[in-house]
Design a protein that fits this description.
By secondary structure, this protein is of the alpha+beta class. Helix content is 52%, strand content 11%. The chain folds into four domains: 155 residues, Beta Polymerase, domain 2, CATH 3.30.460; 84 residues, Hydrophobic Seed Protein (Orthogonal Bundle), CATH 1.10.110; 202 residues; 51 residues, no CATH class. The protein is globular.
């Protein structure tokens, strides 16, 4: 299947689905849009040329994309969402298969339907972002490929090329997308396109925060996050998206690090991705790259399914906890330049950098229009990223310590555990003392065991007394004292020190006695 001089061509002797293996769902879509001029475009065509599976399907058509999406959703029994009513863009979410062990894993398809943005399909393609995405296949004739800009040639050559000299200026979000596609596909950004991307960085300030957030988050939720963030910084985009990172590259490395803070941040992202992938449930990740990671994999293996579910769950608008963890990792040391001090012995300190950094992360995430839950999750990771280090220095992890850790970290506690291990790997590198690493892994094991397997005992014990009980039994008035007593009771239950109603009453009586004697 090819094309000469920008004209569509037919692959002679090709099977009905064409020479490139489109997802099977495309055939179903065809059957429900028989009377419309509709085309498969974008990533699904590109990925098929690369032999990559694709679950994101983009269809453009002459007519109303919203109505087409509704029709397909109704026919397939899928969910429909209007993405942009003014531009006629609708989304269909389709789940196929089952997650039952005896069956094939469930497959989630995202089907986007949009109206043609130009009088002809050729003009529509020429106005797109990159040639790799400017290829169309008519649903009515899937043996035909429309490729006016040589996109197939660029895809097969691994080149990312802008569709026009003004493609990025027309939509500056394409600058971020260029880095995402090049990094995740292993493409080389063509020279003139790279200059467009560099020039487009300041223009991102004129784009809505939601659009910047969504494109940036596709990087955070994908592969090779560290490499992509490095490219964003090198081309001037990161300081627009996350201005808090602007001064990190100029900071000198504090012992025991040999890298400056920015280099350490990038290394942390790399270690975090390796660690997260290693602890995900997938047959191709069973082999650890070295003995250090092998120890973590073996000791934490039993939490793999729970970790996978925890990290892939969406907190809001289908954005995963995994992506939020990577955003927090980028910002975790952002406040170090502001808090740096050097004592009389020449030792460098960053006292309070985690608190200041958490405040910065909170404001930045809010400015990027993340949901309230996501903003809290990100800032909690930054605020508590040093907490495991303090816990590790206190000896074996007790039930009380587990309770207090998750009381402080909340839902972000699991992410804090993973981040701490990655941060340690990045800090020490090959010089990481084995006993220090083993201690860290054991601490993570204790915390994850408490969260995933013993939460009812150690984190959220069933209350033996309620606030109403305290008011009735002890004649207390509603107020802060009630909360303080209940917090003390929950902690004692989590520590295993109180296991019965009688013991709970005795604890409250002791608490009241101390307060009365003050």
């Amino acid at each position: 299947m090819g094309m000469a001089n920008g004209n569509p061509s037919r692959a002679s002797g090709s099977p009905p689905a064409g020479r490139i293996p489109f997802p099977a769902i495309v055939e179903e879509i065809r059957s429900h849009l028989p009377a419309l001029e509709a085309y498969l475009v974008g990533g699904a065509v590109r990925d098929s040329l690369l032999g990559r599976p694709s679950s994101d399907i983009d269809i453009i058509l002459r007519g109303d994309g919203l109505q087409a999406a509704k029709a397909v959703a109704g026919a397939l029994g899928a969910a429909f969402y209007p993405l942009d009513s003014q531009r006629g863009i609708g989304r269909v979410i389709l789940i196929r298969g089952t997650s039952a062990p005896e069956s094939r894993p469930a497959m989630r398809y995202t089907l986007d339907f949009a109206s043609l943005r130009a009088p002809t399909i050729r003009e529509d393609l020429e106005a797109r972002d990159f040639t790799a995405n400017a290829i169309a296949v008519p649903l009515a004739d899937p043996d035909l490929m429309i490729d006016p800009l040589g996109g197939e040639r660029d895809v097969r050559g691994g080149i990312l090329r802008a569709c026009s000299p003004h493609a990025v200026a027309d939509d500056p979000v394409r600058a971020i997308r260029a880095i995402r596609l090049a990094t995740q596909l292993g493409f080389r950004v063509e020279k003139e396109t790279k200059e467009q991307v560099r020039a487009g960085a300041p223009l991102l300030r004129k784009v809505s925060a939601e659009r910047v957030r969504d494109e940036f988050f596709r990087i955070l939720g994908g592969k090779k996050v560290g490499a992509a963030i490095h490219s964003l910084e090198a081309l001037g985009m990161l300081r627009v998206i996350l201005p808090e990172t602007a001064g990190l590259a100029e900071m000198r490395p504090p012992p025991p690090q040999r890298q400056n803070i920015w280099e350490h941040t990038l290394r942390t992202l790399e270690c975090l991705e390796v660690l997260v992938d290693l602890l995900a449930v997938s047959p191709d990740r069973e082999r650890a790259p070295d003995l250090t990671l092998g120890l973590a994999r073996d000791r934490l293996r039993r939490f793999q399914p729970a970790l996978e579910e925890h990290l892939t769950r969406p907190l809001s608008d289908e954005r995963s906890a995994r992506g939020l963890l990577f955003l927090a990792a980028i910002l975790h040391d952002a406040a170090k330049p502001e808090t740096e001090t050097i004592d009389a012995m020449g030792q460098t300190h960053y006292l309070g950098h985690e608190q200041m950094g958490a405040d910065w992360a909170f404001r930045r995430a809010a400015a990027l229009r993340f949901s309230n839950e996501e903003v809290q999750y990100i800032s909690q990771i930054v605020r508590n990223h040093m907490r495991p280090l303090l816990l590790q220095s206190g000896g074996p992890v007790t039930r009380r310590a587990v309770f207090r850790f998750f009381r402080a970290t909340g839902p972000s506690g699991v992410a804090v555990c993973l981040f701490f291990l990655a941060d340690m790997l990045a800090t020490f590198g090959p010089e990481l003392p084995p006993e220090k690493w083993q201690s860290a892994v054991e601490m993570a094991h204790s915390l994850l065991e408490g969260y995933f397997e013993r939460a009812q005992e150690m984190i959220r014990p069933t209350p033996l007394l309620s606030g109403d009980d305290l008011i009735r039994r002890f004649g207390l008035a509603p107020g802060p004292q009630i909360g303080e007593l209940l917090d003390a009771l929950r902690e004692a239950q989590a520590a295993g020190e109180v296991t019965s109603l009688e013991e709970a009453v005795t604890l409250i009586e002791r608490g009241l006695g101390r307060k009365q004697s003050l």
